[in-house]
Backbone:
């Protein structure tokens, strides 16, 4: 799956933001051009890919946001838009008029922040309220965990109140190697799982399925918890590192936000998405050959060897490597040096 | 059966009624005239080649009608406009026998053509005095070597399809600007060789009833073979490596010939690649069956 950044501008300042080195390093006016929109649609279709995610920054800030979504839909894509839900009334009216009926081809993932733990200005909260009211049936809630005492009550409330899709996309805030964002330390992963499991009754009662984004380690989930997760997710459990490919407005490509400065390439160097994936898989293999996982015990772990668990995300491994030199492969050393200089 | 040349004329019911057994391109200035123009041709003893709508607005401001289905239609618009305003009509537009002509004066306009074609709508990029040649080159490459299927983009598709090193084939017919294919009739019934005819001397005839004589006139013959003059008095076009494709079609449109020359020289390579690709896509015949007895 390819993530396409429509713009690098954002309207929020989340403490956990793992895209901030990308956003801060880009000109605020950087937007995906129509020429590149058409190129990307062709590139993805020629690669056999019919799903695309549109991200930012805040993708709705792109002046042609609605047109770009419609274009991808008309080309036969299923489009997922990752948004904060913060947009002006004019943009929301356009979304309502032209996108609300596209239920078979479009979904939104709205990243919701806890109004108390991550407070936002009143105007921003009103805007999110308007968005969820208008587009609720198309919206899957998303939540980024960046502290172990997180709370999900407000999410459950939103699902019921706005008629959101009954799936909660849970992400763990990842470290930006060498940078200072708020994220979950590997040692705290177990506490995160425990906290999540404490909401099992609400998930079950409201029939909401939790879905893990990448980076959750299997070994920190006990048997009771995994039984619950298996049942509630109908077996769709993943403890991998998804290796999403992010494509920026200037057609750079990298392997997920936290690694935006590690082995960044131009999309024009590749002919297909498969070539890009092969390139970054090779990169990930070389990193994992150097450091198998986020815990020392990942080395030799049967779950990792049998690929039931990735042993944490590549970004988490690089974050660890930044503080634990030296490493063996020159290629990795070069990449770490680039990360340090970017930070 | 089609009989060349076809006649391009403004929508004027009396003109259409006066003609017999002709193929007509009827030019209308308003979408409201399309239905009446089609009816007028069908009620006459003529055949409809197509309707050309000169729409002096963005395409998104045009309200397409269901009953245009089955009518070959060219819409000359000034720009594309916004896709969301067009989106509610896209299903209908794709059912129509439609080609959209858009100017090629900027990179953004070239991308508009590309976008429409990628959505399955045949297009024509219109060259003019202000053509952005870099954008034209990108568009031409996309039109001929694009990796995904898309609707034809004229004039590139026509040129590449009919490109033959040994045989002349002009491409003015995609814009109705080729005297052996299209002649032009004005509201007074005067017949001209080119769409841009304005001075009285540019008209072959002032009598619509004498159309059968037109192709025998010296002026007609001279116009059909107008390409020769580039070589009788050698000019930039005669020395241009892109001549094989351009055939002097833009000689009067483009002032700085270095721009169109570079474009058509590049297109020569692309057209050859395109034809090689097309040949490689033809199903391979069984070598041993080729010589089998009948």
Residues:
């Amino acid at each position: 799956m390819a993530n396409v950044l429509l713009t690098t501008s954002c309207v929020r300042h989340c403490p956990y933001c793992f895209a901030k080195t990308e956003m801060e390093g880009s000109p605020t006016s950087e937007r995906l051009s129509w020429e590149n929109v058409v190129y990307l649609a062709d590139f993805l279709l020629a690669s056999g890919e019919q799903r695309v995610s549109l991200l930012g920054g805040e993708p709705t800030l792109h002046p042609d946001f609605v047109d770009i979504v419609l274009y991808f839909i008309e080309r036969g894509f299923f489009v997922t838009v990752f948004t904060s839900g913060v947009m002006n009334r004019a943009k929301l009216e356009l979304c309502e008029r032209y996108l609300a009926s596209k239920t078979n081809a479009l979904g939104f993932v709205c990243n919701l922040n806890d109004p108390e733990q991550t407070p936002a200005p009143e105007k921003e909260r009103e805007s999110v309220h308007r968005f969820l009211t208008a587009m609720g049936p198309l919206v899957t809630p998303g939540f980024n965990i960046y502290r172990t005492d997180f709370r999900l009550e407000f999410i459950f409330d939103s699902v019921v109140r706005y008629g959101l899709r009954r799936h909660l996309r849970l992400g763990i805030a990842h470290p930006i190697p060498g940078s200072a964002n708020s994220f979950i330390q590997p040692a705290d992963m177990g506490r995160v799982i425990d906290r999540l499991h404490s909401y099992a009754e609400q998930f079950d009662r409201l029939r909401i399925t939790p879905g893990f984004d990448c980076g959750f380690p299997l070994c920190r989930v006990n048997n009771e918890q995994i039984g619950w997760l298996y049942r509630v997710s109908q077996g769709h459990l993943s403890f991998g590192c998804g290796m999403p490919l992010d494509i920026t407005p200037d057609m750079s490509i990298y392997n997920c936000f936290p690694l935006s400065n590690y082995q960044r390439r131009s999309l024009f160097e590749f002919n297909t998405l498969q070539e890009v994936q092969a390139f970054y898989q090779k990169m990930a293999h070389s990193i994992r050959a150097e450091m198998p996982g986020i815990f020392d015990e990942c080395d030799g772990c049967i779950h990792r060897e049998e690929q039931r668990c990735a042993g944490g995300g590549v970004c988490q491994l690089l974050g660890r490597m930044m503080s634990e030199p030296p490493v063996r492969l020159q290629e990795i050393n070069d990449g770490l040096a680039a990360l340090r200089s970017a930070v | 059966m089609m009989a060349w040349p076809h006649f391009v004329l403004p929508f004027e019911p009396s003109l259409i009624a006066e003609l017999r057994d002709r193929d007509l391109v009827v030019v209308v200035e308003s979408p409201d005239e399309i239905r009446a123009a089609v009816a007028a041709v069908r009620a006459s003893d003529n055949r409809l080649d197509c309707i050309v709508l000169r729409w002096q607005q963005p395409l998104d401001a045009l309200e397409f009608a269901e009953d245009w289905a089955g009518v070959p239609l060219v819409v000359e618009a000034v720009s594309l406009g916004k896709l969301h305003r067009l989106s509610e009509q896209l299903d209908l537009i794709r059912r129509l026998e439609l080609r959209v002509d858009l100017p090629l004066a900027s990179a953004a306009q070239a991308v508009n053509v590309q976008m429409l074609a990628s959505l399955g709508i045949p297009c024509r990029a219109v060259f003019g005095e202000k053509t952005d040649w870099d954008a034209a080159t990108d568009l031409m490459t996309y039109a001929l070597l694009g990796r995904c299927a898309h609707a034809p983009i004229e004039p590139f598709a026509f040129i590449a399809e009919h490109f033959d090193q040994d045989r002349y084939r002009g491409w003015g017919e995609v814009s109705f600007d080729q005297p052996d294919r299209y002649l032009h009739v004005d509201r007074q019934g005067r017949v001209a060789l080119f769409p841009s005819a304005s001075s009285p001397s540019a008209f072959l005839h002032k009598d619509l009833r004498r159309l059968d004589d037109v192709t025998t006139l010296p002026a007609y013959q001279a116009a059909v073979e107008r390409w020769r003059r580039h070589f009788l008095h050698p000019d930039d076009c005669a020395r241009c490596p892109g001549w094989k494709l351009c055939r002097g079609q833009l000689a009067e449109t483009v002032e700085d010939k270095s721009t169109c020359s570079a474009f058509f020289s590049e297109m020569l390579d692309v057209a050859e690649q395109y034809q090689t690709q097309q040949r490689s896509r033809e199903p391979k015949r069984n070598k041993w069956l080729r010589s089998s007895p009948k």
Q: What stands out?
A: Strands of chain B lie at 6-10, 20-28, 45-54, 73-76, 98-103, 123-126, 153-154, 182-185, 191-192, 203-205. Residues 270 and 276 of chain B are 10 Å apart (CA to CA). The first strand of chain B starts at residue 6 and ends at 10.
